[in-house]
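Can you please make up a whole protein chain along with its backbone structure tokens because I've never seen that pairing?
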Amino acid sequence: MFELTDRVALVTGGSRGLGRAMVQAFAEAGADVVIASRNLAACETAALEVEKSTGRRALPLAFHAGHWDEADPLVDRVLAEFGRLDILVNNAGMSPLYDSLDTVTEALWDKVFAVNLKGPFRLAAVAATRMLAAGGGSIINISSMASVRPRPHTLPYAAAKSALNTMTIAMAHAYGPTVRVNAIMAGTFMTDVSKHWDADAFAQRAETFALRRGGQPTEITGAALYLAGDLSTYTTGTILTVDGGQP
């Protein structure tokens, strides 16, 4: 039901965390995958693992999601290598720590918006234009529950993700009916970042979730496969919540 055979999926931030889980799921569903992130070595390692475990082609590429001028060359490379681009997942993101709102620097603010909004906007616009010319495709933006439940310690990130939600809906109208644009509004997942959390504090917070726990990276893949493939042909401009029932 989640068949993606011979389609091509590009995932930014695809070498670890939620991105790595989605890359694996797409390849297991039959897609060839492009793994893009700033860390080319990590992308290369992930690509070898994917090819060995699935038999699908995995192309590792260096890409900085916050750099506007890297979007066109990335899409051009994908089209040159595969001849098509069917799925784009704007997954790369960042939420740096700061002491208090008055200590947020202009540089930090600009960096957070570049990676979480400016870069994804440009990459989605470039990819959608090429998809439109080719007959269609699916774009999935990875948003966050912080976009609708902002807190002081994540304000720049939350503001950028809120704008990403807005962008998702507008682009669905801009590139429809053949290109669908949706977002997954992710809750708390136990990725590499979670290793640095206060375990007891998180366990207490998780007791307020309907599922009483954080999510595993693989638990994002059902939503991603749904939005990427043909089961969601009447779904666009949607912000799909996957958060374990956070209050």
